[in-house]
UniProtKB/TrEMBL annotation:
<dbReference type="Pfam" id="PF11026">
    <property type="entry name" value="DUF2721"/>
</dbReference>
<feature type="transmembrane region" description="Helical">
    <location>
        <begin position="93"/>
        <end position="117"/>
    </location>
</feature>
<keyword id="KW-0472">Membrane</keyword>
<keyword id="KW-1133">Transmembrane helix</keyword>
<dbReference type="InterPro" id="IPR021279">
    <property type="entry name" value="DUF2721"/>
</dbReference>
<feature type="transmembrane region" description="Helical">
    <location>
        <begin position="12"/>
        <end position="34"/>
    </location>
</feature>
<protein>
    <recommendedName>
        <fullName>DUF2721 domain-containing protein</fullName>
    </recommendedName>
</protein>
<feature type="transmembrane region" description="Helical">
    <location>
        <begin position="123"/>
        <end position="144"/>
    </location>
</feature>
<keyword id="KW-0812">Transmembrane</keyword>
Length: 182
């Protein structure tokens, strides 16, 4: 095998190396897209529930205790879900930009080899490291989203518990004799 064909083979391998990162970023993107879709649907549902409760408030003039707890819980959940959506959006943007940098890395390697421009010698490594940094930032955003997701679930559970406690307290007030029969 002559030196030129070995060099061409090495260059093709070097050009295709960023393709691994492009593929992994694509899988990461699919997960982020599913998460973002789920978040946005949840925000729409909770916002609709909040809108319905607001209409009831304008008609009734006030909430009962359970509705008041639910309305406050909706406000907290929506704020947290919007924060989560912001982090997932940023992770998605970082991942998309990372793919751009990995593709540019492949082009820079090819240009360096075929044009022999010495100025392009370090450009591919710079582009690749920038892409990896963007992947890291995207993963950090996803980790922050995961932490916030846990707090949203805690709010939902606390909301349900508060409503149940309120329900049982009101039912005991209405039927004090029922408790002594149990």
């Amino acid at each position: 095998m002559d030196q030129m064909s070995l060099t061409v083979t090495q260059v093709i391998q070097a050009i295709l190396a960023p393709a691994v990162m492009i593929s992994s970023s694509g899988l990461f993107f699919l997960g982020l897209n599913a998460r973002q879709s789920s978040l946005l649907n949840r925000i729409r549902l909770l916002n609709n529930e909040r809108r319905i409760l607001s209409r009831e408030l304008t008609h009734q003039g006030q909430f009962d205790a359970g509705e008041d707890i639910r309305f406050l819980s909706l406000e907290h959940q929506l704020n947290n879900l919007l924060r989560r959506a912001w982090y997932v959006r940023n992770a998605t943007l970082c991942d998309t930009l990372a793919v751009v940098f990995f593709v540019l890395t492949s082009f820079a390697i090819a240009l360096h080899f075929f044009m022999g421009i010495t100025l392009l010698e370090r450009v591919p490594i710079f582009l690749f490291i920038t892409g990896m940094f963007l992947v890291l930032v995207g993963v950090i955003c996803l980790a922050i989203d995961e932490l916030i997701a846990y707090s949203v679930i805690l709010l939902e559970v606390q909301d349900k518990q508060s409503i149940m406690v309120d329900f049982f307290a009101r039912s005991n007030e209405r039927n004090p004799g029922e408790q002594s029969k149990m």
